[in-house]
Task: inverse folding
């Protein structure tokens, strides 16, 4: 087959999904391949060689397929090339039709020189979401100055360049900068079109000829944000990422809250630059490619030998097996061995979800469940993921929580909920929280269930990231009702000390009175007296509270955190941490 021969001889430089049914591949030789899919099957293949021989150089270093143009960086020259597609039917409702074939009359080529000299390096290129600014970047070079060579200028030392991209003048250099570290990854923000996000390795300052010494060094990686404003590119921030091994690959979630890195020690790390929170998980192989599902709920990790492993957004593994395989202990392993099902000459090079940000027709209502697998030297494969009838084949975070609860994997469900963003998906977070809480309240209370209930409520009352006042105001009252249900659940199982701590957190007089009567019936005289005293204190405070004072209080969560030795009043404005130790006033002998 012609496509197979092309994939064996020419590496794929760029992949672009025009829709869920149309995928385009740009090869290093300039050949443009369009695949028309029907489900996971290829219905039509169009191969276009119009660009072959029309570019300023023969070898493409990197490429991007845009809506109206193609972008290239060239291996032999320090240049960026734009091929503008001057089509009259760009607004066609079927973009697959008018992108299958190009003609010489439809293309317009423009070239711009990059700063940094004519060194032969692999330059990478990226396009922002509004498709009006281009970023070009490459690795840092050795800054050693020789006596016979001139001192390079700041422009010549730059390794990150921004270019304006338009139809009439073509490409124009806007600004350039030299990064502090060696870029591992560089891309535009999806939410801020003029922000550039980078991951930089700060290990090049320590030179050593010993490979053992280099492996022993702890990698220093920073997550950096650059902004183009007032005609210049400048660095806004940098967050260090504590790693134990050298990073190989990385990707970001669709909401740009998390950074996922694949490390050389067969592990992946999920890092939140804003809070500094990180999570780790072990892989069954060295991760070389990563792909985040468009919903943010699933992570795909691929190995160089064709292994594929799936995690949810809480970094709990999800087993993979083929639909036609009978579930046996041997068929469900930590990873899916693609080499057992696909004949390949070399390793896995890229995994990509079939996702187009701009939906055409009704495809936006469908699940994004198709995964493109690209092997070095071919072939191409498509893998469709299904969670079964229970979730209706949906792969969103809320669906994953329900799937985990259906499988009695409560800790995994809590991990997903803990990494969901209340600011962006508050309703889905709330539904997931009450689903987990209802599931646990129906179970007999033991030490594990009690800890899971505390963790579930703590996701709202003691989050890693502070919640906004809008989110607190919207969900504080309904979630507090579940906290009260947890209190009475503790009472029914005679967990009086924990119930007392929870009542202090909630700060409601009726809960202390309920605890007082139940403790008195069970002969817990000291606890009953302390509960009655707390109820009277709350009643007295409510009567003496000045009119209008409560309205002037800052918006806060209803529960508060304290050390085990403190019993604080309901007016305290700290946030909740559900505790497991007993306050001093309830300890025996006091």
Result:
């Amino acid at each position: 087959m012609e496509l197979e021969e092309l994939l064996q001889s020419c590496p794929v430089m760029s992949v672009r999904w025009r829709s869920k049914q149309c995928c385009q591949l740009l090869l290093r030789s300039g050949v443009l391949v369009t695949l028309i899919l029907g489900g996971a099957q290829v219905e039509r293949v169009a191969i276009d060689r119009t660009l072959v021989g029309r570019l300023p150089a023969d070898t493409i270093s990197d490429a991007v397929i845009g809506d109206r143009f193609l972008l290239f960086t060239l291996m032999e020259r320090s240049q960026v090339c734009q091929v503008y597609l001057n089509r009259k039917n760009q607004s066609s409702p079927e973009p697959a039709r008018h992108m299958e074939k190009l003609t010489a009359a439809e293309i317009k080529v423009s070239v711009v020189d990059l700063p940094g000299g004519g060194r032969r390096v692999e330059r990478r290129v990226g396009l922002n979401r509004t498709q009006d600014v281009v970023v070009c970047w490459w690795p840092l070079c050795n800054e050693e100055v020789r006596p016979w060579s001139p001192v390079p200028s700041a422009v010549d030392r730059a390794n990150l360049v921004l270019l304006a991209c338009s139809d009439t003048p073509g490409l124009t250099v806007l600004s350039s900068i030299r990064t502090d570290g060696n870029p591992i990854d560089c891309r535009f923000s999806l939410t801020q079109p003029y922000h550039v996000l980078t991951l930089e390795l700060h290990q090049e300052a320590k030179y050593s000829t010993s490979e053992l010494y280099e492996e022993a060094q702890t990698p220093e990686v920073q997550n950096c944000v650059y902004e183009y404003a007032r005609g210049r590119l400048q660095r806004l921030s940098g967050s260090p990422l504590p790693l134990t091994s050298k990073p190989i690959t990385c990707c970001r979630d669709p909401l740009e809250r998390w950074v996922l890195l694949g490390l050389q020690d067969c592990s992946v790390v999920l890092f939140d630059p804003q809070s500094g929170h990180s999570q780790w998980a072990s892989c069954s192989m060295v991760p070389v490619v990563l792909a985040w599902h468009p919903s943010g709920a699933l992570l795909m990790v691929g190995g160089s030998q064709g292994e594929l492993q799936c995690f949810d957004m809480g970094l709990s593994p999800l087993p993979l097996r083929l639909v036609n395989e009978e579930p046996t202990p041997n068929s469900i392993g930590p990873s899916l061995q693609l080499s057992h099902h696909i004949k390949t000459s070399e390793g896995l090079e890229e995994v990509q979800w079939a996702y187009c940000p701009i939906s055409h027709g009704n495809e936006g209502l469908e699940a994004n469940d198709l995964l493109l697998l690209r092997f070095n030297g071919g072939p191409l494969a498509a893998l469709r993921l299904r969670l079964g009838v229970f979730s209706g084949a949906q792969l969103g975070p809320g669906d994953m929580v329900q799937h985990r609860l259906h499988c009695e994997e409560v800790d995994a469900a809590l991990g997903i909920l803990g990494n969901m963003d209340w600011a962006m998906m508050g309703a889905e977070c709330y539904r997931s929280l009450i689903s987990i809480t209802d599931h646990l309240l129906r179970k007999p209370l033991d030490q594990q269930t009690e800890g899971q209930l505390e963790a579930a409520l703590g996701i709202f009352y003691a989050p890693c990231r502070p919640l906004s006042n809008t989110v607190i105001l919207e969900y504080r009252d309904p979630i507090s009702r579940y906290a009260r249900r947890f209190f009475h659940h503790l009472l029914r199982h005679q967990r009086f000390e924990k119930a007392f701590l929870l009542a202090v957190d909630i700060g409601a007089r009726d809960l202390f009175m309920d605890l007082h009567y139940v403790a008195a019936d069970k002969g817990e005289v000291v606890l009953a007296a302390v509960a009655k005293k707390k109820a009277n204190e709350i009643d007295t405070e409510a009567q003496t509270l000045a009119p209008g004072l409560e309205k002037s209080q800052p918006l806060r969560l209803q529960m508060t955190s304290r050390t085990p030795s403190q019993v604080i009043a309901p007016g305290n404005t700290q946030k909740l941490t559900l505790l497991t130790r007993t306050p001093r006033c309830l300890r025996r002998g006091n």
